[in-house]
Specification:
Elements (H helix, E strand, L loop, with lengths): L13 H10 L4 E5 L5 E5 H17 L7 E5 L4 H13 L2 E4 L6 H11 L3 E4 L4 H7 L9 E4 L16 E4 H6 L15 E6 L9 E5 H11 L12 E4 L11 H8 L2 E4 L6 H10 L4 E4 L1 H14 L8 E4 L6 H9 L3 E7 L6 E4 L11 H8 L4 E2 L3 E7 L2 E2 L8 E7 L20 E9 L5 E6 L4 E3 L2 E3 L1 H10 L3 E11 L3 E10 L7 H6 L13 E4 L13 H8 L2
The structure holds adenosine-5'-diphosphate (ADP).
The site of adenosine-5'-diphosphate has 22 residues, from strand 14, strand 20 and strand 21.
Length: 538
């Protein structure tokens, strides 16, 4: 080591909770239980319980590097698990309970989870998948107290524990160990809208750096006085890093459990004086509809983080009227997930209100720590607001390939192909046109399904919309629009088509519009285009 050089300490996830427990001891963690009551704890108390849990994990035989599965909603217990599992050096494999049982079994088997923690509500899932996991799964722990233990038959050789009883049997005497910051801490499988689930293995270093960036002023801008409600589930790319960024800053965490309907979210936002929340656009569409119905406003909410699919411009405008700024972010499991975030630049200040909203509706600009570019056959595309290319990225929290799939490796400084297509504005904002496979190619011209959907959503009678390609003998493909009307509204296909006039070139206007009762959503809240294509493309 060079004399007098800066100290080197590994960037470990445990350092976040240690800091919160010491410097934000009273920082609050509020969790809504299954029976809708609220449980309250502090970062100091949570850290002590995480140490107890660390001892319990060691007693259950968890070893550094071993994968520990979770099937759980957002709660203080899931948060303790994150920190205890990662803090001991094991790997927290969050599994999305909304996936099909086959996919859940595939993930737990591929990850070789030795221990699985599950909410009592997910006991039936555990019962269904456990027989397929006999090779590696030895212990199941249900995240509840003894009276709430479900009746759960497990294959011979697997043991069942009650979480609170398990914790009570261990003490807090545990020191978070130091180890290599390049060790793995989390494993999250992408939700399979794109085929078999693929594992993304997060490192401690990437997770800590991502959380620091998340907290920056031009990203979430978190303060210790903020109260953060992640609606985005902790099984969806670590709830976008909020469970790390909030304690790092000392901001309170408000965790909704399984109560994710608009009424429950609004009451939690208001009742718990939440200032910032994060979730997919579908959530904010639902919350807005409820609020409109009641003619109400938010009590304390100031900002929303949204991504996962495109946030319609019209939705941003509606929230702005309520005094709430929606920050549009783009990324994916493979980028931990934040790659770009939308915040103004000095050039934004010169724009009029409409142009500002146009810019705000883009997917944002690269945050420090990640580089993004669009590529076509000629190389990197110019930042001209026109030239479309395949988006690729690299950086401190970008996967170098998928877990146990060496054929997918891009190495440490290779560009990771995102499967998304976009355009760069002259100011460096990314406008996501589509997922590669969702683009519509009509008569040699590309039509962005996102652009078509954004216009439909701006129609006053439309609640939700999706555009897909349908085969066309003359043009190759043509856009088909499927809309779900707002309650008590009856828009006609003709009125919707007319709404596109002067907003897009004539050839981009959908030929056919289908009025539907609902749209199919995937396990992470995205509209399932694969399903829509099956239903309507013929
Ligand atoms: P998957 O749905 O593939 O399992 P993710 O949940 O990681 O995986 O989602 C990543 C994808 O979600 C991105 O590749 C992109 O297509 C889409 N996405 C994410 N953020 C946005 C956004 N702000 N606007 C449009 N699409 C987005």
């Amino acid at each position: 080591m060079l004399m007098g050089l800066m100290q080197h300490q590994p960037l470990l996830v445990s350092s976040i909770l240690r800091h919160a427990a010491r410097h934000h001891a009273e920082g609050e963690v509020v969790s809504r239980r299954d029976d809708a009551t609220l449980a309250r704890t502090s970062y100091a108390a949570l850290e002590r319980r995480a140490r107890r849990l660390a001892n319990a994990l060691l007693a259950l035989g968890a070893r550094p590097g071993e994968r520990v599965g979770t099937l759980a909603m957002n709660s203080d217990r899931h948060l303790e698990l994150y920190y205890a599992v990662m803090g001991t050096g094991a790997v927290c494999n969050t599994i999305n309970p909304r996936l099909a049982h086959g996919d859940i079994a595939y993930i737990a088997d591929h990850a070789e989870d030795g221990i699985l923690f599950a909410d009592p509500a997910f006991a039936p899932i555990v019962a269904a998948v456990a027989p397929k996991l006999a090779k590696t799964l030895r212990t199941v722990v249900i995240l509840c107290a003894e009276p709430d233990m479900p009746d759960l038959p497990l294959p011979a050789g697997m043991t069942l524990h009650c979480y609170e009883t398990l914790l009570a049997g261990h003490n807090e005497d545990y020191a978070w160990p130091a180890f290599d910051e390049n060790a793995a801490c989390g494993l999250c499988y992408t939700s399979g809208t794109t085929g078999r689930p693929k594992g993304v293995l997060f490192s401690h270093r990437a997770t800590v750096l991502h959380a620091m960036t998340m907290a920056m002023g031009d990203v979430t801008g978190l303060r210790a006085t903020d109260r953060v409600l992640p609606v985005v589930p902790m099984f969806h790319v670590n709830a976008w890093g909020l469970p790390f960024a909030a304690p790092m800053i000392g901001a309170a965490l408000v965790l909704p459990g399984r109560h994710l309907d608009p009424d429950s979210i609004i009451s939690l936002l208001d009742g718990e004086r939440v200032t910032i929340s994060g979730g997919v656009p579908t959530v904010w569409l639902g919350v807005l509809a409820k609020l409109r119905e009641r003619g109400a406003r938010f009590a304390t909410l100031q900002r929303l983080m949204s991504g996962g699919s495109a946030v319609p411009r019209a939705l941003m405008a509606e929230y702005a009227k309520l005094g709430v700024t929606i920050s549009h972010a783009w990324g994916m499991t493979e980028s931990s997930p934040v790659a770009t975030w939308n915040s103004p630049k000095p050039s934004t200040l010169a724009l009029d209100a409409e142009a500002r909203l146009d810019e705000q509706a883009t997917q944002g600009r690269a945050v420090f720590g990640i580089d993004v570019r669009a590529e076509n056959e000629a190389g990197e595309t110019p930042w001209d607001g026109r030239t479309q290319g395949n988006l690729v990225f690299r950086g401190h929290w970008v996967a170098s390939g998928y877990y146990r799939m060496p054929e997918t490796s891009v190495g440490d400084d290779g560009w990771f192909p995102t499967g998304d297509v976009g355009v760069f504005s002259p100011a460096g904002y990314v406008v996501l046109t589509d997922r590669t496979k969702d683009l519509i190619k009509s008569g040699g011209e590309w039509i962005s399904s996102i652009a078509i959907e954004n216009i439909a959503i701006a129609h006053p009678e439309v609640a939700e919309a999706a555009a897909i390609a349908v085969a066309d003998p003359k043009w190759g493909e043509r856009p088909l629009l499927i809309v779900v009307p707002r309650p008590d509204c009856t828009p006609t296909p003709e009125s919707l088509r007319a709404f596109y006039k002067d907003k897009v070139p004539g050839w981009s206007i959908p030929d056919r519009v289908i009025i539907a009762e609902s749209l199919p959503h995937g396990a992470t809240g995205k509209i399932l285009k694969t399903e829509l294509r099956k239903r309507y493309a013929g």
